[in-house]
Amino acid sequence: MMIPFIIGLPTVVIVVLIHYEVLHLLNGLVGKPGFRYRRSLITIILCAILAHILEIFIFALGFYLPTLFSGIHSIQGDITGSFRDYVYFAGATYTTLGYGDIVPTPEFRVLASLISISGLTLITWTASFTYLQMVKLWK
Fold this sequence. Notes:
Blueprint lengths: L2 H27 L7 H34 L4 E3 L5 H12 L7 E3 L4 H29 L2
Antiparallel strand pairs: 1-2
Helix pairs in contact: 1-2, 1-4, 2-3, 2-4
């Protein structure tokens, strides 16, 4: 029962730090000479999407590690057992889309909830950051 917490809390901290660093880096790039308007906003959007994809992969890894090392399954449903299933589940959970074809096992529901709240928070953080940059650039 402790495995989801042992995996979940550090994973959340890691993805938040990654997101902060990406947005901080983007904030430093925006508005520099040669990085105006269109190029700045396109860079922000593409880098933010890449950051979200990386974060989804990190959450997928958090769900995959127990299966890989101890045989404890963290997801169930229409799965083949490949890492791709975990990436799909993490992406659907991170975006709070949740199709329902793959679900967490009872022990890992808390970790799935952490993915959802983290994804929602990080997606809105990206939206707020992008809006603020647009306000600065589109005066």
